[in-house]
Amino acid sequence: MARYSIRKGRWEQQMIDTVKQSRCDLVLIGHDEDRRPDRNMQVDPDRIAAETDIPVISMPYERRLTHIYSILIPVTHFLPIRKLMYGAYIASKNQASLKLLGVETAHSKERTRYFLKKSYELIHESSSVYVGLALTETENVAAAVGMLAREEATDLVLVNPGEETRLPGSLLSPQHKTLSKASSSPVLIINPL
């Protein structure tokens, strides 16, 4: 069913209110890949996902979700159950492969490797999806995910809002550059359980 409405107020807040009222299952936000500072996305997909607990896909206007062959999921210092469930489901429906990227810091090596192994086992035991592994050490999850997504021409990236989408320098930048705004791949933002 398709519906539309016209409301007064800030666009982002109206989207959050509408999602909560209509009990949507998914929010799709298109953005221009033109990264000039004066051309900012008018809404923050991270905020919408965090406040509504509804997955949000942010994608460049020229991209499509018709042929998904590769999905990238970062794994950090906790088990990303919800991302794994969405990733395995989408991969199995599209005959796509999953790539689990372990993003470790100097202080989280053991935990990250444990959860990367556990994530692999959960996907491998519960589905016939091909699962690849990669491991990197960095302090910025979004930068590592963005780089690997570009290198491998990933069709879909699954992240949690916040730390996994914040690019380097985004706390100090007036534009608050995030992965969902800068990525040439569609980004599915999912709140963790």
Search tags:
193 residues, alpha/beta, 7-stranded mixed β-sheet, 35% helix, 20% strand, globular
Notes on the structure:
The protein is 35% helix and 20% strand. It contains six helices and seven strands, in the order αβαββαβαβαβαβ. It has helices at residues 11-22, 45-52, 81-94, 109-126, 141-151, 179-182; strands at residues 27-31, 56-60, 70-75, 97-104, 131-137, 156-159, 187-189. The protein has a seven-stranded mixed beta sheet with strand order 1-2-7-6-3-4-5. The longest helix has 18 residues, at 109-126. The protein is globular, with a radius of gyration of 17 Å. The mean pLDDT is 87.
Fold blueprint:
Blueprint: H1 11-22, E1 27-31, H2 45-52, E2 56-60, E3 70-75, H3 81-94, E4 97-104, H4 109-126, E5 131-137, H5 141-151, E6 156-159, H6 179-182, E7 187-189
Short description, anyone?
The protein is of the alpha/beta class. The chain is built from six helices and seven strands, in the order H-E-H-E-E-H-E-H-E-H-E-H-E.
pLDDT < 50 stretches = none
Structural category is: alpha/beta
Shape: globular
- What's the total count of β strands? 7
- The overall pLDDT, averaged over residues, is 87
How much is the radius of gyration in Å?
17 Å
How is the biggest beta sheet arranged?
A: 7 strands, mixed
- Fraction of residues in H or I helices: 25-40%
- So how many helices? 6
Give the helices and strands as they follow along the chain. Answer: HEHEEHEHEHEHE
Q: Whole-Å distance between the termini?
A: 29 Å
Q: What is the percentage of strand-forming residues? A: 15-25%
How are the strands of the largest sheet arranged? 1-2-7-6-3-4-5
